Amino acid sequence: MESIQAIKQRFGILGNDEKLNRAVEKSIQVAPTDISVLVTGESGVGKESIPKIIHALSHRKHGKYIAVNCGAIPEGTIDSELFGHEKGAFTGATQSRNGYFEVADGGTIFLDEVGELPLTTQVRLLRILENGEFIKVGSSKVQKTDVRIVAATNLNMTEAIKKEKFREDLYYRLSTVEIHLPPLRERKEDIHLLFRKFAADFAMKYKMPTVRLEDDAVALLQKYRWNGNVRQLRNVAEQISVLEQERSINAEKLREYLPGIGSNLPAVIEEKKRESDFSNEREILYKVLFDMKNDLNDLKKLTLELMKHDNSEKVKEENEGLIEKIYGNNDEEEVVPEEITDEQLEVLQIPQNNTPDKQDKYYFAEEIEEEETLSLQDKELELIKKSLERHNGKRKAAAEELGISERTLYRKIKQYDL
Ligand SMILES: Nc1ncnc2c1ncn2[C@@H]1O[C@H](COP(=O)(O)OP(=O)(O)OP(=O)(O)O)[C@@H](O)[C@H]1O
Ligand SMILES: [Mg+2]
Q1: pTM exceeds 0.70, yes or no
Q2: Fewer CB within a 10 Å sphere, N or C end of the chain?
């Protein structure tokens, strides 16, 4: 059996906290069985690594691994996405379609944000868990599938059951083994370690010297609540790496990047952030330009290689890392519903007035004559980022504030790689 350390390294999990190690150990132990697993923990604690470990160490590792974000699929189509549908099952069903449970036969399905599943879908899921049976939407034929289910949630399931939003019987079926990931504030020893690793990664990415925290900043880092957990810490490390000229960061500087410090009251966040928010726009644009410059340099390098050799396969092989960096890695199966609904076409309402008002929260600080599309995209990105920050990464609340569906927000997060 691979050791906990080796698995953590293989899956990019940092930290030496005992509870974190216990979670990884449990994943290793449960992997070879077909037992359903429920991964719990606050938003941003790293729940998505656990099903990957379980799948990779199971006898299903050569089978499919499908990750489904239950919170991002509209209620009207989720049954069809998961279980498939017959031709003519509903308006627009011009062809029959296999659902993820059929496609993943012999493999693993990761049901992320499982607490968001509608009650009717929960009934269907319970049946699969009990005897592997399901029925396509619009069909009467019972089908069988052999799928291992790992689910995750950041909700308090006891509450959800009490409010009758989640079936108790399904909860017990799903959580035969529960793996809990501790919040970052309970892993004090790991916080600085994680910050150093992220700072080093971003220094490399942006080709800058690494930022370092002074002692008082380290103390502040460990005292902070980290409602957004590792995700928030990573974002803070990135912002500081990009925006700060001075590479040595003291507590006073760090404080500017930690919302709600002191009281954690939203009102304080509003007050504190208002001034700095849009004076930072220019810096955010710099970051975008910075990224573009880096990509351009990488592309130049690749083009040069291609000009030097006429064997493109060899160049591809030798520059695998670079190609992945520029074009991304599409290996992992990411499930996004296929049909385009009106909801998917939803866009954020960005004010178009030409007379900027400094009190207006959409006001773009500098008079930058740039391409309209870029500026609109930046504004949208900023709105999303700020809303997610305000809600500590909670997509539901952010989507509500932005006036778009959670699913649209999810797509935008993917689009902007947030
Ligand atoms: N121990 C860790 N070491 C390194 N990176 C981590 C660790 N834990 C989390 N991360 C990083 O933090 C980010 C958030 O993790 P992840 O997406 O797994 O969160 P989550 O628990 O699924 O949150 P949510 O409930 O909001 O979906 C990812 O970029 C992940 O790589
Ligand atoms: Mg997640």
Answers
A1: no
A2: N
Nearest ligand to the C-alpha of residue 39? 1
Q: Which among 9, 49, 116 is the best mutation to test ligand 1's pocket, defined by most ligand atoms within 8 Å of the CB?
A: 49
Ligand 1, atom nearest to 112 Cα: 27
Residue with tokens 């990415």: 205
Quote the crossing angle between the two packed helices 406-416 and 372-390, to the nearest 10°: 120
Residue 110, beta-bridge partner list: 67, 150
Q: Which ligand is nearest to the CA of 230?
A: 1
Are the CB atoms for 150 and 110 separated by under 8 Å? yes
**Chain segment 10-21, per-residue pLDDT in tens:** 999 999 999 999
Q: How far is the CA of 112 from the centre of ligand 2 (A)?
A: 6
Q: How far is the CA of 90 from the centre of ligand 2 (A)?
A: 31
CB burial readout 55-75, b (16+ within 10 A) else e: bbbbebeebbbbbbbbbbbbe
